[in-house]
Amino acid sequence: MLEIKNISKNFGGIKALNNVSLSIEKDEIVGLIGPNGSGKTTLFNIVSGLIKPDSGAVIFSGKRIEGLQPEVISLSGITRTFQEVRVIDSLNVLENTMIASLPHFKMNYHIASDAAIEALEIVGLKDRAQTPVSKLKDGEKRLLELARAIAANPKLVLLDEIMAGLMEKEQSRLANLINMLRNELEITVFWIEHVLRAMFRLVEVDRIVVLNWGNKIAEGAPDEILRNNEVIEAYLGKIRGLGGETIA
Ligand SMILES: Nc1ncnc2c1ncn2[C@@H]1O[C@H](COP(=O)(O)OP(=O)(O)OP(=O)(O)O)[C@@H](O)[C@H]1O
């Protein structure tokens, strides 16, 4: 479904991505992990069209999409969430969701509204449709981000640290939702996360790709990644050592 081929991106002297390749099959959940600054969000920004790679190709459903406008990529079936929730506080929950669904449904208000309400129902925010976004709790804003991504009827969704800052109960609920996206809605998921308990234990992740300093250093099933010495050295060991994040 998605093929990332030899992508490189420099910012000034910084090699944010160095010849990174990976592919994602339909109906997979693929995790993307690595230390801060290892290039994860840069890769999402390239796939979603926010930045152009210096070299390499991104192929989605057989077509090259690198360098296309974000709106075009979104219409082709790739939507995303952002680390910093991008909702408009002056609008209500439904209006925020419709901003995402309207372009996909050729600005047809009724169809876009139905799609938005369905997305809100999926994430459990339907009862809050008329609530101003400013009244939502942080966890609810994350769910709204997800609803916006779903409302545009994607084939592939990119989730960027969607668990960050949430309580454990909210993380578990969101993990169930991610599983449901793939299992029931047939949406393929590519997911960046630092909450490793969610990545390794809560969500049914098929494969995990690990970046370090812009290089792909590992790729494999979650249990293989947990045993990979290079990954432990570059990332997992440091996190365990800090004592802040536990996987089990
Ligand atoms: N627009 C930009 N201009 C200059 N440097 C950038 C830009 N975007 C990213 N970088 C740099 O590229 C590198 C990779 O950053 P990126 O945000 O992709 O990492 P990340 O793995 O997503 O980090 P985190 O886990 O902290 O979100 C970092 O050194 C970052 O400072």
TrEMBL record:
<keyword id="KW-0547">Nucleotide-binding</keyword>
<dbReference type="Pfam" id="PF12399">
    <property type="entry name" value="BCA_ABC_TP_C"/>
</dbReference>
<keyword id="KW-0067">ATP-binding</keyword>
<dbReference type="InterPro" id="IPR003593">
    <property type="entry name" value="AAA+_ATPase"/>
</dbReference>
<feature type="domain" description="ABC transporter">
    <location>
        <begin position="2"/>
        <end position="238"/>
    </location>
</feature>
<dbReference type="Pfam" id="PF00005">
    <property type="entry name" value="ABC_tran"/>
</dbReference>
<dbReference type="InterPro" id="IPR051120">
    <property type="entry name" value="ABC_AA/LPS_Transport"/>
</dbReference>
<dbReference type="GO" id="GO:0005524">
    <property type="term" value="F:ATP binding"/>
</dbReference>
<dbReference type="InterPro" id="IPR027417">
    <property type="entry name" value="P-loop_NTPase"/>
</dbReference>
<keyword id="KW-0813">Transport</keyword>
<protein>
    <submittedName>
        <fullName>ABC transporter ATP-binding protein</fullName>
    </submittedName>
</protein>
<dbReference type="InterPro" id="IPR032823">
    <property type="entry name" value="BCA_ABC_TP_C"/>
</dbReference>
<dbReference type="InterPro" id="IPR003439">
    <property type="entry name" value="ABC_transporter-like_ATP-bd"/>
</dbReference>
